[in-house]
C-alpha cells in the first residue's frame, strides 16, 4: 500500500527518471511492483527526498547499474542503496521550499513558452486561409489536377549505385503543413532495397498516407522517393509547383483528402482521388506573387518557432541546473 507523500521510483529503464510523489487522492492505494516505494522517516523531509530522486546524480547512479543489461531494470535494494546528502531536517526543509518555489516558476514559464510555440505553429495555416479562403480566391477558376498534372516518374532500384546515392525522401522527411524538408539522407544511407520513384527538380512530392498530416514539398534536386509519395509533375505554363504544394497542405484540400482517404482501411489518398480535386487557378503571375508573400511570412514564422524552441529548451534545462545547485550546497 502507498501513502500520501510516498515517493515512487520506476525500477525499469531508470534513465527515464519516472518518479512521482503520491498525492492525497491516491492515499492507501496499491502500487505496481515495477516501482520502488520510498517513505521518508522523521529525519528526512519528503519534498527534499522527491527533489533528490530527480537529480542527475541519482539517475546516473541507477543507470550505471543496468548498462549492458538485456533488460534495463534495478531492484528495490539498489534504489535504496543510493546515497543521499543529509543535512539537518531544517536545512532540508529550507532547500525543498526554495526548490518548490523555483520549480513552480519553471512550470509557469514552460507553459507560457509552450503556448506561444503552439500559437506560432498555427500561423502557417492561418496565413494560407487568408490567401486561399479570401473572397477573391473564391472567384478563381478551377481545374481538375489530372488535367494539368501527371505522375510520370519511373521506378528504380535503390541498390544500384546510380540511384542509391541519390537523396531519398519519404513522409518522415517533410515537416507537416510547412512544405519543408527536415533532413536528408541517401537511399543507401537509409538502407533502402525496394523500388523507389525517381523524381526530378520542380516535382511536387505529396505524401498520400494519412493526408491529415499535410505533407508536401517541391524538390529542387533529383532524387528518389518512397511508393507512399506521389511525385507530381505540373504543367508550369499554367501552374506553379510551389503554389501547388501549398494548395495541397491547405485546409480545403486537406479536408477533401481526409474525407476521401477514410473510405480505405488505411487512410490513403489514391491517384484517382488526387487528380479529381479541382485546384483554384489564378493567373501564373498571381500564383507566384501569392507564393512569394506566403514564403516571406512562413520564413518569419520559422524564425519565431526556432527562437521559441530554443527558449523552451533553455527552460526545460532549468530543473536539472536548479537541482544541481541545491544538492551542491549553493542555495
UniProtKB/TrEMBL annotation:
It comes from the Bacteria. Belongs to the type-I restriction system S methylase family. The keyword Transferase does not apply. InterPro entries: Restrct_endonuc_typeI_TRD (IPR000055), Restrct_endonuc_typeI_TRD_sf (IPR044946), Type-I_RS_S_subunit (IPR052021). GO terms for molecular function: DNA binding. Residues 28-101, 139-299 form the Type I restriction modification DNA specificity domain. Keywords: DNA-binding, Restriction system. GO terms for biological process: DNA restriction-modification system. The keyword Transferase does not apply. PANTHER family: TYPE I RESTRICTION ENZYME MJAVIII SPECIFICITY SUBUNIT (PTHR30408:SF12), TYPE-1 RESTRICTION ENZYME ECOKI SPECIFICITY PROTEIN (PTHR30408). This is Type I restriction modification DNA specificity domain-containing protein.
Amino acid at each position: 500500500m502507498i501513502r500520501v507523500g510516498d515517493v515512487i521510483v520506476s525500477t525499469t529503464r531508470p534513465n527515464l527518471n519516472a518518479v512521482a510523489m503520491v498525492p492525497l487522492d491516491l492515499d492507501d492505494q496499491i502500487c505496481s511492483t515495477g516501482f520502488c516505494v520510498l517513505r521518508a522517516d522523521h529525519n528526512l523531509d519528503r519534498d527534499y527526498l522527491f527533489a533528490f530522486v530527480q537529480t542527475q546524480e541519482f539517475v546516473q547512479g541507477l543507470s550505471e547499474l543496468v548498462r549492458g543489461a538485456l533488460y534495463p531494470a534495478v531492484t528495490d535494494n539498489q534504489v535504496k542503496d543510493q546515497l543521499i546528502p543529509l543535512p539537518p531536517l531544517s536545512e532540508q526543509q529550507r532547500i525543498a521550499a526554495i526548490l518548490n518555489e523555483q520549480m513552480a516558476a519553471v512550470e509557469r514559464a514552460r507553459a507560457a513558452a509552450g503556448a506561444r510555440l503552439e500559437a506560432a505553429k498555427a500561423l502557417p495555416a492561418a496565413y494560407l486561409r487568408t490567401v486561399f479562403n479570401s473572397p477573391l480566391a473564391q472567384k478563381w477558376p478551377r481545374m481538375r489536377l489530372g488535367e494539368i498534372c501527371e505522375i510520370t516518374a519511373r521506378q528504380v532500384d535503390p541498390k544500384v549505385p546510380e540511384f542509391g546515392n541519390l537523396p531519398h525522401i519519404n513522409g518522415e522527411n517533410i515537416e507537416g503543413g510547412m512544405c519543408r524538408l527536415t533532413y536528408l539522407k541517401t537511399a543507401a544511407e537509409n538502407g533502402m532495397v525496394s523500388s523507389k520513384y525517381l523524381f526530378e527538380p520542380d516535382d511536387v512530392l505529396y505524401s498520400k498516407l494519412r493526408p491529415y498530416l499535410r505533407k508536401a514539398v517541391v524538390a529542387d534536386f533529383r532524387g528518389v522517393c518512397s511508393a507512399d509519395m506521389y511525385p507530381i509533375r505540373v504543367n508550369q505554363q499554367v501552374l506553379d509547383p510551389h503554389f501547388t504544394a501549398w494548395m495541397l497542405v491547405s485546409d480545403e484540400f486537406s479536408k477533401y483528402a481526409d474525407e476521401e482517404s477514410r473510405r480505405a482501411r488505411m487512410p490513403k489518398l489514391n491517384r484517382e482521388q488526387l487528380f479529381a480535386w479541382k485546384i483554384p487557378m489564378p493567373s501564373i503571375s498571381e500564383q507566384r506573387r501569392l507564393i512569394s508573400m506566403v514564403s516571406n511570412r512562413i520564413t518569419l514564422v520559422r524564425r519565431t518557432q526556432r527562437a521559441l524552441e530554443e527558449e523552451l529548451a533553455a527552460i526545460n534545462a532549468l530543473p536539472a541546473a536548479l537541482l544541481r545547485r541545491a544538492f551542491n550546497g549553493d542555495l
